[in-house]
Amino acid sequence: MVITFPHMGMMYIPVKALFDELGVDIIVPAKINKQTLETGQRHCPEMACLPLKILMGNYIESIKRGADTIVLSGSCGPCRFGYYGVVQGEILKDLGYNIDIIILDPPSEGTGEFLRRLKKVTGNSSIYRSLKAVKKAFRVSNELEGLLQLVLRQRPRATNKVSIDQIMNRFENRIAASKGADEILACIYDTRARLERVETDRNIKPLKIGLVGEIYTLIEPYVNLEAEKRLGNMGAEVHREMTVDSWVKYHLAPDIKHRRRHNRILKKAEDYLHLCIGGHAWETVAHSLNYAREGMDGIIQILPFGCMPEIVAESILPTLAKDEDIPLMTLVVDELTGEAGYQTRLEAFVDLLELRRSSVSDESGKTLSWY
Amino acid sequence: MNVGIPRALLYFDYFPLWQTFLSLAGFEITISPPTNKDILNKGVSLCVDDACLPVKLFHGHTADLADKVDVIFIPRLISISPGEYICPKFIGLPEMIKNSVKGLPPLIIFDYNLHKDLKGEKIAFGRLGTELGVGGRAIDNAYKEAKRRQLIYRGILESGQNPLSILYPKERWDEKLGTKGTIGVIGHPYLLYDRYISMDIIRKILDNGYNVKVPANVSHSTIEKRLENMPKNLFWSYGKRILGSGMDWLADDRIHGIIFVDSFGCGIDSFVGELLHRYNIRGRRLPYTTITLDEHTGRAGFDTRLEAFLDMMEWAG
User: What is the CATH class of B169-316?
Assistant: First the structure.
C-alpha cells in the first residue's frame, strides 16, 4: 500500500512526519502548478469548486508516481467537501484507475467506522507506536506553525525580501530529503534560527491585514496566488488564524485552551452569525470581527468561486466592516483568475490602507500583541 | 397582522404547511407574486454577485414584499431530515437577507432543524407561535392541520401529479397524455415550478407531446432504496431527491429521456449532476441533457436547446 493525500500548503510536513513514524509508504504530493490544475480541471465537473479540481490533479499526479491509496479527511455536510471522496472516486474509476479512497470522517459520525478506517491507514503499527507517531506529528505541526508565523512577521520588515524566499525554498528542499519527525524538527529549528537572523528594518511599522476565507484557499499559496507573499513584499504584515495547526488543534488534538479561545471568538460574532452553516463561514465572520477589534488596518476575504458557505459570509461582511469601520476586500479566485488584475487589486487595497492610516493618524494606541 | 411569504426557494414544497399554519394562527397572508422581471432585477441588484439564481430571487421576492406587509416570514431550513442538510445558503439565508436588503419590516425567522430527530418540527412551530404571540392550544391545532395538509400535498405529488397542477389549477397539465413518451425533468423545486425562471419548461415539454415526471413524483422510500449502495450517505436532502429520482428513472423503462435543470453556481447540482451523468453513461445511456439557468439565460437559446433535445428523443425512438 502506497498512500497519498491532498496537497495543502505545508500540511504535507506534519503528515509526512506522521507516516514516516508509522513506517507507512507514502508519496508526498508534488507542489501544485498550472499542470496540476489543468489535469484536474479536465476531469472534474465545471461547476465544482476549485479545491476539488486541484486535488484531482494532485491525485492523478501521485497515482502516476505509484500511489494506490488516497487518504483524505471528510465531513458530513453541508459543505461540498464532505462529498469530495465519493465524486473523486467515481471520476478516477471512469478514468480506469483502481484506487482505494479512505475518507476519515469525524469520529462523531461513528467511532467504530472511524477506527476501522484509521486501522487501514496505520497498518500493522501497535497502538503504542501509533500514538507516539501522532504525538510527534502534533509537535511538528505546532513547530511548523511557529515557523510560518515567523515568516509572516519577518517578511514586511526584512530589508531584502528575497532572502526569506531563499531560506524557505531551502527549507522545503531539506524537508524532502529528510525522514522521520526528528529530522523534520531539526530542519524547522534550523530554519527558524536563519529567519531570525534576517536583516530587518526596526523602524518599520507595517500595515496589519487580516486574511479570512475558505480554509484551502487561504492555506494553499498556489490557489490564492501567494497573497501572503505579495502583501508581505508590499510591506504589510499578514495575520491568518485559519491554519493547519489550528485546524488540528481544534478537530484532532485535545487542546482545550485553543478550543476555548476559538469558541470565544466565534461567540463574539453572534450578532452577525450565530450558528455553523458549514465550511468555515462562521470562522470567517468571527475572525473578521476579531481582527477589527484587535486594531487591524484591513481585512481581505478570499474564497473559491461558488463556495457555498463563504458566499453567506460575503454578504454579511460588508455590514460588519461598516459597523467596525474597517476596510474590507473580497477576492474570488478560480482557474481563470489573472495574476495582473489580482496584483493590482492587492496594491490598490494596500495603498488605500496606507492613505487611511496617514489621514486617521495612528493615535488610537491599539496594537496587536503577538501571542 | 399581515404576514408576507416570499414565493421562492422551498415555498414550492412547503406552502401548504406554512400557509395553513399561519392562517389558522390568525394571520392574514400575502404571498409575493410569481417571479417577474422586476423581482428578478431587484434580486440580482440586492444580492451578492456570487450567490446562485434562486437565492437572488429570494432577495427579490423579499424586497417586493417590503412595503406591502407588516412582517416577513423567512424560513431558516437547516435540515428537513435527520442527519441531512439542505445547503449552506439556506442556513445563512436570514443573515443574507438582513445584510443585503435594507428597509424591510420586521422579519419572522422560522428556524427549522430536524438534524437530530423529527421532533424538531413541533418545537420549531411552537417557537414560531411564541414569537408571533399565539397561545399553546391554538398553535397545536394549527400545527396539526398544517401537517395534515402538507401530507395530503405530498401524497398527491407522489401519486404522479405535477405540483404545477396544484399551483396553477386553472390550466390543464395532463392535456395530451404524452403520446410520444415520458421525460424526467430533474431540478430543484424552486427552479422547476417557478415558471418565469424555468422558461416554463414543463409546459413546453407537455405541448410537444411528452409526459413529464418530476422528482417530487418519486416516493421517499424509492429514493432511499436507490441510494442504499452509495459509498457514503448523501447529506443533502435535495441532492438525495435529485440523484435518487434520476437513478430510479435510469432503471425505469417508462422514462425515455432526462433533462437536468440546474442553476449556475449550484454547488449541490454540480456534484449530483456529475454522478448521475456518469451513472447514465455507464449504464442505459438515455438521452440526457443539462440546462443551466441564470439571470442572463435567453429564451431563444433555451428554446433551441430544448428543441434539439426533443429532436434527439425522436431519433432515439
Answer: alpha beta
